[in-house]
């Protein structure tokens, strides 16, 4: 989930260069919740920005927790936020596996994939 088109483009390139091609992009947390509930899917991995319009990443995490949506997904925070309180709050959710700074690189994708 990312609202910045350039960041989406860079992330998609990094994912594709590591062989990941089944990717769905949403612009905010609300759009992502709607997609997950309508499609009734549980993604293996969710890359989540914290600062997005309409519904940000922390609110998305809370809604997922309340609704048991994506509870089995491994969530990786990918953000430009360096606020310590954001990192602390995100780590309160069991399925948040790491907190990464943008941009997503091939090396970061390899680290994410090593969690499987």
From TrEMBL:
Pfam families: Response_reg. Residues 1-116 form the Response regulatory domain. InterPro entries: CheY-like_superfamily, Sig_transdc_resp-reg_receiver, TCS_response_regulator. GO terms for biological process: phosphorelay signal transduction system. SMART domains: REC (SM00448). PANTHER family: RESPONSE REGULATOR RCP1, RESPONSE REGULATOR RCP1-RELATED. This is Response regulatory domain-containing protein. It comes from marine sediment metagenome.
